[in-house]
Amino acid sequence: MAQHPRAASVPAGTPTTITQGSKSPGGIGESTLRPDGTLKVTGEFAYSSDMWHEDMLWGHTLRSTVAHAEITSIDIGEALATPGVYAVLTYDDLPAETKNYGLEIQDTPVLAHGKVRHHGEPVALVAADHPETARRAAAKIRIAYTDLPVITDEASATAPDAVLVHEGRTDHHIGHVPHPNIVHRQPVVRGDADAAAARADVIVTGDYVFGMQDQAFLGPESGLAVPSEDGGVELYVATQWLHSDLRQIAPVLGLPEDKVRMTLSGVGGAFGGREDLSMQIHACLLALRTGKPVKMVYNRFESFFGHVHRHPAKLHYEHGATKDGKLTHMKCRIVLDGGAYASASPAVVGNASSLAVGPYAVEDVDIEAIALYSNNPPCGAMRGFGAVQACFAYEAQMDKLAAALDMDPVELRQLNAMEQGTLLPTGQRVDSPAPVAELLRRVKARPLPPEQQWLSADAEGSSVDVRALPGGLSNTTHGEGVVRGVGYAVGLKNVGFSEGFDDYSTARVRMEVINGEPVATVHTAMAEVGQGGVTVHAQIARTELGVSQVTIHPADTQVGSAGSTSASRQTYVTGGAVKNSCEAVRERVLEIGRRRLGTYHPAWATAELLLEGGKVVTDGGEVLASIADVLQDEAVDIEQEWRHRPTEAFDLRTGQGNGHVQYSFAAHRAVVEVDTELGLVKVIELACAQDVGKALNPLSVQGQIQGGTTQGLGVAVMEEILVDPKTAKVRNPSFTDYLIPTILDTPTIPVDVLELADDHAPYGLRGIGEAPTLSSTPAVLAAIRNATGLELNKTPVRPEHITGT
Asked: What's the rounded Cα separation, in Å, for the pair 1 and 213?
């Protein structure tokens, strides 16, 4: 952190007037720069894949080549005999009684035993003195498989004679699901949807398919495990939740948690894909077996198998309305494919069902959401977490309903928009601002970009810039057959962990004097994955403690849990914890000041005191002392937990319950140009309006909104993991075949930020990271529909969907 000049010192207790200029800059509300920003853009930032130890070995994972099969034999002899190989491990080498792990349901084996349940499941591990040696040795392991029938969809999963993906389930969801191949089921029922349907003047239905999206983070899974002298292990890893990892790792290693010491390494993106374990246990096992540090780094191909993906979904919706556009009812059924292991599927089901109606006021609803076990790749957390799939469907329905009523689609949405005080289908009342109609008004009121931007005039006449056309530099058109379309969408997303989860965070804050200056140190276990928490924590400390110098301690498990960097929760929850601990430190500093200097001025006993600009000041601006003179050689160090308001589980029959702590809202307008002859799409603009409660760092807020919008764009027009429906094998595990938006694909993304405070949240803030991912996808689809007149009920939209070829 940059140092700021210290104000001229004055004798302790001498009152002066503080000026605005002497207050510490870089507090909340300012666009302070990321401390790691320059290092990242210059390539000097150390990611987890950059870690190194002098005598380290390299680990490699051998994965299954089939999706569902019995393992009849494993021969490691040739691999173990390879020069340079130090260890080859299989299931039989696991050291503890616990051999499975999982976020909620411990159904995922560390290494496959008896059978494999999905393509790419880990079967064996190799440690060698060179990564290529480890890879070649793993290729020498001989595994004999006997194929089993594959479960790939709802029909095959729930057939009366269906093969069970997991036999003998004992988890707490099994008692209320209609079939063992259903992970979890959550209905939400309110009012009488059938009776309300009878009152509807117009009813529209739709079937929608949402493809499997990958988080596509650029930094692959990686980490370094170092054995300790006490028999434990030090693990340096890129993850989203250090303490959740610890809870799962230690039992499998047969170690107490205090002997597994974890430190966060540089994280190259996450978006939910690092919430589950990948190489953590494997690296530790190899390090403990060999007695040497072991580094593991996945290549891009392996990364596609090494983490969960976004749940693909099939959704059936029905909406009814009166002739003036007022919604009468909504029915829907959402089927999410969770793949071979549970991961976060139960929570995704809870989100999909409870948010299935979207940001609309509807009294009569009948909702059901389920997640399947299948032999497809495991699916779990990804930005938007169940709400993305639902938003795609209900926003398509709103456009369909508007067309049936001959109404403007934005006006229909505004007519039915929820607001503060609205009762949700779960029975929970929205108790903070819900500016849905205003967000839609703002994106609609924005001027449209000019037509035919690919044309430019020069001295010789008009010229065409093909980069601005569908197809881009492939030069497929000069404007022939190109049609413009405009579409709108708005979404509803919860913030924080829900359904009664004890969602807390911990922060340790230390204040001391170093070289005559007060310095604050903030220590949390928050995983910085790019969201900007390290910046915000320093801003909070400057605001609450009045210092300019703030040190952010590396995140590790030597401090209490900060929870996961997911669910748009970290600024709210860990930011709340930092604020809470800073307030406690401030009070302790003031207590010290009263004890040491209280006789110098009566204000020590009577005034409301603040810390500003490195000074203790009254609320009237009088300086009573410098913080350095108050603390002298004494340090204040406080660690405290902080919790938001409690939530409660949804009723398993009706879905009623105050399940969420906060809601966030974003709206988009997409402008596209479509080559209707070739089926190519160019997104020209993707404008967003979002309520953020309070922008603690406006620059970071804008970046989060634009990033989330871009991920929504990706799944709209290009991103999908393709799985063979007959073999359940992944067909495109590379960035050659799995496409993500580049700078040439990403349009202008104007951002309109509202700041309507949520009085229940620290500083009135609202979690922001996920909401723009919801509505950007259906907005793009709506714009393509507007341009082509096609229904387009599947993501991503491919050229053949437009051309019909």
From this structure: 38
User: What is the rounded CA–CA span in Å between residue 747 and residue 711?
Assistant: 12
- Within 10 A of 8 (CB to CB), how many other CB atoms are there? 8
Cβ–Cβ under 8 Å, residues 26 and 549: no
More confident: 1 or 422: 422
Q: Are 755 and 646 in contact (CB under 8 A)?
A: no
**Chain segment 720-770, per-residue pLDDT in tens:** 999 999 999 999 999 999 999 999 999 999 999 999 999 999 999 999 999
N residues, the chain: 805
Q: What is the rounded average pLDDT of the residues 680-692?
A: 98
d(Cα 393, Cα 415) in Å, to the nearest integer? 19
Q: DSSP label at 540?
A: H
Query: pLDDT confidence of 24, banded at 50, 70, 90?
Result: low
> Up-side HSE of residue 403: CA atoms within 13 Å toward CB?
15
DSSP string, 94-155: --SS--EE-SSS--EESS-BSEE-STT-EEEEEEESSHHHHHHHHHT-EEEEEE-PPP-SHH
Residue type present at position 316: H
> What distances in angstroms separate CA 116 from CA 110, 166, 306, one per listed residue?
12, 11, 15
For 2, residues 6+ apart whose C-beta sits below 8 A from its C-beta are 548
Measured in whole angstroms, how far is the alpha carbon of residue 4 from the centre of its chain? 35
- Please name the residues in contact with 563: beta carbons below 8 A apart, sequence gap of 6 or more: 241, 243, 497, 503, 504, 505, 569, 570, 573, 574
d(CA 243, CA 240): 9
- Measured CA angle at 533 (ends 529, 538), to 5 deg: 145
Give residue for tokens 């209905």. 187
Say how far apart CA 7 and CA 726 lie, in whole Å: 72
The answer to whether the CB of 681 falls within 8 A of the CB of 797 is yes
Closest C-alpha among 325, 486, 329 to residue 401: 325
Write down the pTM of the prediction.
0.95
| Contacts of residue 496, Cβ cutoff 8 Å, sequence gap at least 6 | 503, 567, 568, 569, 572, 573, 644, 647, 660, 661, 662, 767
Does residue 8 have a pLDDT over 90?
Answer: no
Gap between the Cα atoms of 370 and 332, Å rounded: 11
Q: Are 90 and 74 in contact (CB under 8 A)?
A: yes
Closest by CA to 664, choosing from 423, 443, 494, is 494
Q: How many angstroms separate the CA atoms of 270 and 264, rounded?
A: 13
Nearest by Cα to 49 from 243, 278, 247? 278
Nearest to 311 by CA among 390, 394, 225: 390
- End-to-end C-alpha distance for the chain, whole angstroms: 58
> Distance between CA 786 and CA 673 in Å, rounded?
10
φ and ψ at residue 120, rounded to 5 degrees: 90, 15
The count of C-alpha atoms lying within 13 angstroms of the C-alpha of 362, restricted to the half-sphere facing its C-beta, is: 36
Per-residue model confidence as pLDDT tens digits over 328-379: 999 999 999 999 999 999 999 999 999 999 999 999 999 999 999 999 999 9
pLDDT score at 568: 97
Q: Which amino acid is at 768?
A: I
Sign (positive/negative) of CA torsion 666, 535, 261, 239?
Answer: positive
Look at residue 1 and tell me whether its pLDDT is greater than 60. no
Residue pair 70/145 in contact (Cβ under 8 Å)? The answer is: yes
- Burial classification of residue 132, based on how many CB atoms lie within 10 Å of its CB (0-12 exposed, 13-18 middle, 19 or more buried): exposed
- Cα–Cα distance, 656 to 367 (Å, whole number): 12
Above pLDDT 70, what percent of the chain?
96
Give CA separation, 350 vs 334, 385, 422, 566, in Å: 11, 10, 20, 16
757 vs 431: CA distance, rounded Å: 11
What is the Cβ-side half-sphere exposure of residue 707, based on CA atoms within 13 angstroms? 20
Question: What one-letter code names the amino acid at 84?
Answer: G
C-beta of residue 763 within 8 angstroms of C-beta of residue 700: no
Which residue blocks in 91-130 are alpha helix, DSSP H? Answer: none
Query: Which residues are 47's β-sheet partners?
Result: 266
Contact criterion met (CB below 8 Å) for 702 and 753: yes
